[in-house]
Amino acid sequence: MRIIILLLVFMVSMQYVVAQQQCDYGIEILVGGEEFEQEDFKWRMKATKIEGIPTNITGTAKIENSDGKTIKSYKPWTSQPISKQKTSNEYTPNLKPGNYEISAEINVNCDDTNKDNNKDEKKIEIKGEAKETKSQNSKNNEVKDETTAENPNKKQIQTKSKTTQNTVTKPAKDEGADNIIQLKDKDNKNQIKPITSDTIKSTKNQEIVYISSNEKAKNLILVFLLTLSILLNIVLIWRR
């Protein structure tokens, strides 16, 4: 009987001890808005006891860019005691212009009954040169669009100029054609000329010239022979 009573007392005391070890702590990221200038951004993190007993706490935090890359990491508390709340130092990470996400998390040594509030996240935007560059690019695009609207025939003019350049290079082909024509002309010169009445007359005249010269030669020979025969006769008569 005594053993049963002792067991009951032990179970009640254990439940009391477990109840005494239960707690609920939460973490909160403290920032003054969502958009900041590069030199104005600063933040803190605060851990608060909602219920339960004092305990030891460990806190971590990090800042990631839009690509999910960790830019900054923090560990403000490492197993430090907390009774009601604890606030970190003020951080000024001097981030470049862009979008970022801050995440913070705590771990406690007691039995935390609600772990949903052990994490906190905040999204922020750092304004600056990146945003100005985007706006400048958009302005430049608008100027280009306006220029295109004011000169709708610009592309046609460029096309015409390209066509003109292509036309200027065509004489190289014409030179080849001229060379072919010249070769044909030379071949035509080497070809036999057609026979005409003028050609026949010139040929006859050449033949007449040749004939007349032959006749003159024959006549001279006859005269020479005749003269020679006369001289021979004279010589013979003189000897007699």
Would you mind describing this structure in some detail?
With 240 residues, the chain is α+β, with helices and mostly antiparallel strands. It has a domain at 22-132: Immunoglobulins (Immunoglobulin-like). 50% of the residues lie in helices and 29% in strands. The chain contains five helices and nine strands. It has helices spanning 2-21, 129-150, 154-168, 171-190, 197-239, and strands at 22-30, 35-37, 44-52, 55-65, 70-82, 85-87, 98-108, 111-112, 119-127. The strands form two sheets. It has a five-stranded mixed beta sheet. A four-stranded mixed beta sheet has the order 6-3-1-8. Strand 4 (55-65) and strand 5 form a beta hairpin. It is rod-shaped, with a radius of gyration of 62 Å. The N and C termini lie far apart (216 Å). Mean pLDDT is 76; it is low at 167-177 and 187-192.
